[in-house]
């Protein structure tokens, strides 16, 4: 189990298999680095905060570009900015035999970049999301009770909590009451409300928080294993790339 980690970039630089990730904060896509879109296989990801600041190329998803083999993502928040040439999806490009539920896409900026020779520059053109929650559902992939603040535009006007775009929620209603009573988030032990950002924040994250967070996560996530060496390295904020198995 990987818990209470905080990183300014991606938590896992490439692929994750059979991992449980909970109560973590990332400054880029949770899984996948600058040169890899990221794949999560048979992973359980819950109560994570992604405050994205990404600039690069290729399609990206806030959690991972591809979710597969029964992965589950629940009660996660993605917000921030993306400058790129590909498509950005709030949580995953492909939800393949996997499940995304009770997640929220907060305020987000997308803009276009171009390349001349080896120089990358921003043209300042606003991009819109291909899909706010996931690009595709494949092989029984399921989306349930997800939402996005209505300022985030999409190529489609669909507005269904169980759809690819999630429910559109007015900024005035995108508040603690909505997260707690509609999305079912725990504001007693996991989340707190940040009045400055107007968004949820994790109570236990970063150095010194791991023990308390692990106890909480173990109580809410069934069937997880004890932290191993990989978890200890992540808690120490060491960089890990390639494939993570835990």
Q: Tell me the β content.
A: 35-45%
Major beta sheet summary: 8 strands, mixed
Return Rg in Å.
Answer: 17 Å
Model regions low in confidence, pLDDT < 50 over at least 5 residues: 115-124, 210-215, 223-246
Order of helices and strands: EEEEEEEEEEEEEEEEEEEEEHEEHHE
* β-strand number: 24
Q: Tally the helices.
A: 3
Q: What do the pLDDT scores average to?
A: 82
Structural class: mainly beta
Oligomer: single chain
Gross morphology is: globular
> What gap, in angstroms, lies between the N and C termini?
6 Å
What can you tell me about this protein's structure?
Strand 22 (191-194) and strand 23 (199-202) form a beta hairpin. Mean pLDDT is 82; it is low at 115-124, 210-215 and 223-246. The chain has helices at 176-181, 210-220, 229-235; strands at residues 2-3, 6-7, 15-17, 20-22, 25-26, 39-41, 44-46, 49-56, 60-61, 66-68, 72-74, 77-84, 88-89, 92-96, 99-101, 104-116, 119-126, 134-138, 142-144, 147-149, 167-169, 191-194, 199-202, 243-245. The strands form 5 sheets. Strands 2, 5, 8, 12, 16, 17, 20 and 21 form an 8-stranded mixed β-sheet that branches. Strands 1-4-7-11-15-19 form a 6-stranded parallel β-sheet. It is mainly β and 246 residues long.
Concise summary:
The chain is mostly beta strands and 246 residues long.
Primary descriptors:
246 residues; mainly beta; six-stranded parallel sheet; 10% helix
SSE blueprint and pairings:
Blueprint: E1 2-3, E2 6-7, E3 15-17, E4 20-22, E5 25-26, E6 39-41, E7 44-46, E8 49-56, E9 60-61, E10 66-68, E11 72-74, E12 77-84, E13 88-89, E14 92-96, E15 99-101, E16 104-116, E17 119-126, E18 134-138, E19 142-144, E20 147-149, E21 167-169, H1 176-181, E22 191-194, E23 199-202, H2 210-220, H3 229-235, E24 243-245
Parallel strand pairs: 1-4, 2-5, 3-6, 3-24, 4-7, 5-8, 6-10, 7-11, 8-12, 9-13, 10-14, 11-15, 12-16, 14-18, 15-19, 16-20, 20-21
Antiparallel strand pairs: 16-17, 22-23
